[in-house]
Amino acid sequence: MGKRWIDHLRVTLVLAVPLFASACSSDEDGPDTNDGDKPAVSVSKEALINRAYIVSKLSDELTIIDLKKLEIIGQVRTLGEGNHMAELNADFTKAFVDSAETNESVVVDLKKLEVTNRLEITGHPTHLSLSRDGKMMAIVEEEDNAISFVDPKTETVIKRLEGFMTPHFVRWAPDGQFAYVANIGAHFLTKVDIQKLEIVGTIPLDGIEPTPRAAFAEDETGFADAQIDSDGILHAADIGKGRVLVYDTNSQEKLPELEVGPKPWIVYAEHPFTTIQVRLVPNLGDMTITSIKAKTRAVSMIPDAADHDSNGVNYSPLVPDKAFVMNRLKEEISVIDTDTGEITDHIAVGGTTETASTTPDGKWIVAAVSSANKVVVIDAVTNEIVKTFDNVGKYPWSVTIPNGQNYCH
After folding, report:
1. How far apart are CA 388 and CA 347, in angstroms?
2. Residue 244 dihedral angles phi and psi, to the nearest 5°
3. For a disulfide at 27, which of 44, 111, 168, 247, Cβ 3.0-4.6 Å?
């Protein structure tokens, strides 16, 4: 997360310890190919889907949680430093873990629970995302203003594309033709042709000339993300300008911008839940939440629902009129009735809440509580913490669940 990470931690990264992995075996789905003298590991497709992967920032573990049993079933020592997040390949048999301080993306075999490859990705790799067809992984290189496009099958870099301004996240449009890059160092998005892997345009805020000098966003006050909802509508909050850029990726037309609160972080619009009819953005400047209606794009404000470092908003299809806001400084998750705009609950988590992921069925919200070195599992219907995991490494930072609501910061 660049300067924002340094500003709110100012700590020294802990060096990785020797490689260790505890392998697991689950419901059989046919034998795997034996690798040398190692016994084959049999893990079913169902078992791979029902997992959560926790990346810790100040130690090198990738922690694996079985979401059916609510048990830690393994940890893989990646030997990474400053690990940021994990992304999965299309069949959930591999995880790519970005190690920002060693300039690598570490490949983990999720059946054997072992590191199998290390891809050199220069320029401080942080966020990564899989294309909708599963054929490409995009990895941002924030310090080099570049993106590496990786083939997750062959684990090779297809192309390294330069010309961004501190790229922070890549989002893939449903049309399969274009990807959109949020530049946190500029007041514009960058449009990439997926087939050619070339930059084909920029989408600036109103009144901004799309040139590096005119669009420069000092102190990373541009776009942290550019999430695309199930209707193909992109929402990107500009931190410095307090506006949300809205773009129809289907017609490739810019829609009217929306005024929100000061220092909006991310509009949480991209997730697998089609029944959610709002897109919420925490405004870090005044601790409000802006609610944007999906169809009408009507805007309303919810006071005191966020804090000055709220890093996530989660939803559940089981309770489509509820939203869960990760309030890092308040050490809680606030629960909002999105119909009335009322705060209905506060879930105390006992530490700084970083990010969370919702399971695809909407049952669990799995949240990283960084300062307490733990992860909590919350029942989305009752708001109760049903499980706490304490042995997840130092400073758990991000959570990834197959087919779930996944994001980073």
Report:
1. 13
2. -110, 120
3. 44
Specify burial of residue 125 (Cβ count, 10 A radius: 0-12, 13-18, 19+): buried
Give the C-alpha separation, 173 to 180, whole Å.
Answer: 7
Long-range contacts of 344-352 (CB under 8 A, 24+ apart): 345/383, 347/378, 347/383, 347/385, 349/376, 349/385, 350/374, 352/328
Alpha helices in 144-254 (DSSP H): 212-215
Residue 387 lies in a domain: no
- pTM over 0.70, yes/no: yes
Query: Does position 29 have pLDDT exceeding 60, yes or no?
Result: no
CB-based burial label for 262 (10 Å; 0-12, 13-18, 19+):
middle
Distances in Å between the Cα of 119 and the Cα atoms of 26, 124, 150, 351 are 29, 13, 9, 33
| pLDDT, tens digit (0-9, with 9 covering 90-100), for 182-239 | 999 999 999 999 999 999 999 999 999 999 999 999 999 999 999 999 999 999 999 9
Strand (E) or helix (H) holding 104 = strand 104-109
Q: What is the CATH number of the domain that holds 15?
A: 2.130.10.10
Q: Is residue 47 part of a domain?
A: yes
Residues in the chain: 409
Q: Which structural domain range is residue 84 located in?
A: 1-127
The pLDDT of 334-352, averaged and rounded, is: 98
> What is the CA angle 193-264-182, rounded to 5?
15
Pair of tokens at residue 88: 């999965």
The pairing of strands 310-314 and 299-302 is unpaired
